[in-house]
Amino acid sequence: MSNPPNRTPEPVSDSSKLFWSTRRGFLRRSVGALAFAPLASALPAWAAKAPPVRSRESESHKILVLGAGMAGLTAALSLQRCGHDVTVIEYQDRVGGRLLSVPLKGGQFTEAGGGHFRSNMPYVLSYIRRFGLPLLSLNDGLPRYFYGGKAADAAVLSNWPWDLNPDERNVSIASTLNHYLFLNGLDADTVLSSGWPDPATMNRLDSLTVGDLIKRVGGSTAFMKLLDAHGGTFTGASAALGAIPDLAYHFGDQNLFRIRGGNDLLPQAMAKVLGKRIVLGAPVVAIDQGGDRVKVTVKDGREFSGDAIISTIPFTVLQDVTVTPKWSPKKKAMFEQMEWDATVKVIAQTKTPAWLAQGIHGWPLAGSDRPWERVIDITGNEPGGFGNTFFYLNGANAAAILKRPRETRAQEVVDQFREDLPGLFDEMVTVQDFAWTEQPWIRGSFGGPPVGGAWMIDEWTKPEGRIHFAGDFTTMKSGWVEGAIESGLRAARQIDPSAKPEAEAGLRQEITA
Ligand SMILES: Cc1cc2nc3c(=O)[nH]c(=O)nc-3n(C[C@H](O)[C@H](O)[C@H](O)COP(=O)(O)OP(=O)(O)OC[C@H]3O[C@@H](n4cnc5c(N)ncnc54)[C@H](O)[C@@H]3O)c2cc1C
């Protein structure tokens, strides 16, 4: 089952404030949130790291999991397998959270959220295999760039019209970027291990941006801009710590795939195992852990009680949930200071994947400094004959399109692209958009620590009383399903150390927390 995008947003609460800090920009909630100064003495006693809820092998507990995205489903399944009584409470009438597949013409599917996976994501691979889901292969990016009014193809490096350093010429953006990471003492493999970063690396990188990292080892401004055009969500101004795993995913592996029939088939398969343990259409409005048990109240007044909670509610929404006793100052500061991207996808299905004949394709098919930002080609070996793409607009570009009339805004983006890079798209078959800031259950797309926010890395793993936290935004792999699965396992193991994944990851992953 797949659901069409929700096009009628509920109003976001008055306390929302938008701050655009980079070209792509960030959505940050709260005003004047300054760097958090630890206030250890203000912490209630129960905010200290709690022991696992399960103390004896045979003990079964009632666990409430808030949110039925990949993190919540992972946590719920692993605890249910250990014999605990699990209830998953979900805001929407569907499971999957930010995995949301949308049917297109000709039997094709696009992805409003999580769009692709790579072979350096061992948990994702093992879960897809465990549930017997078929894969589609995709192309990595061999894009056409359009920057500063000039166009050039990634496949024809020697013709690039930009003022790159001699060392940056004649090699791909991925090779140069990996070289720059190496010169900074980093590599694409290590930064994806679950124990990264160690405290020394955290200190070393906490005050740096991606631009600082690249410039300090001799990278040119032109290279920085091309990287921005290629990658989109990370920019020169992004906090280095949060962006480095993102860079490693994009530039450390060229094997891309998605699930045939839609990526949300994975959460749906997991939900099937949990069955009636999932309560849909139940936005959590209050959490009370003042008494012997935890109590959760949902919008229609129903109450659920249990021994412990795993919350995967995005912090953008969680900070508006009434909680008793109040959050500790450090948790409150984390919720307020985490930076969230704003993203709009413009879905564009074409009569054929005409770009292939021009020697360009993939993730991304084109990247620019223009309002259309980037186009991603997810056609790969999907049947149907149509070209399957989406534009990926972030920050200021996302904000700009949302100010345009709803009926025409998606078409305007396609038209701008066709004007800048004519000949790549043939006839349009489907044009529509999906805006992440308009979804009341998240109000953004990806969350991560700002520059100076390394303290959050420890903080998001710490339970607050009997509330444990999961969600990709509580890992260094924010914006990736791999992070969501890791976080669900971590939170489940805080409650019961014997909790296991549905399938063991084959490669480098060892959950350490
Ligand atoms: C535009 C976009 C592109 C992406 N691209 C990729 C990609 O290419 N590859 C990749 O691996 N990942 C990608 N991701 C990230 C991926 O989708 C996420 O990492 C993953 O789905 C997050 O799972 P989660 O469970 O942590 O959070 P979510 O999926 O956000 O789940 C949170 C759940 O909590 C629920 N909830 C919220 N508030 C309440 C409440 N008050 N009460 C009860 N429930 C509540 C929500 O409805 C939701 O179901 C992308 C995401 C976006 C938005």
Name the descriptors.
disordered N terminus, alpha/beta, binds flavin-adenine dinucleotide, FAD/NAD(P)-binding domain, 5-stranded parallel beta sheet, Polyamine Oxidase, Chain A, domain 2, 513 residues, 14 helices
Structure description:
It is a single chain. This protein has 14 helices and 23 strands. The longest helix has 15 residues, at 481-495. Strand 7 and strand 8 (150-153) form a beta hairpin. Helix 1 packs parallel to helix 14 (481-495), helix 3 crosses helix 7 and helix 5 packs across helix 7. Strands 8-7-18-19-20-17-21 form a seven-stranded mixed beta sheet, sandwiched between helices. It folds into three domains: 45-96 and 264-339 and 449-495, FAD/NAD(P)-binding domain, CATH 3.50.50; 144-251; 342-445, Polyamine Oxidase, Chain A, domain 2. With 513 residues, it is of the alpha/beta class. The structure holds flavin-adenine dinucleotide.
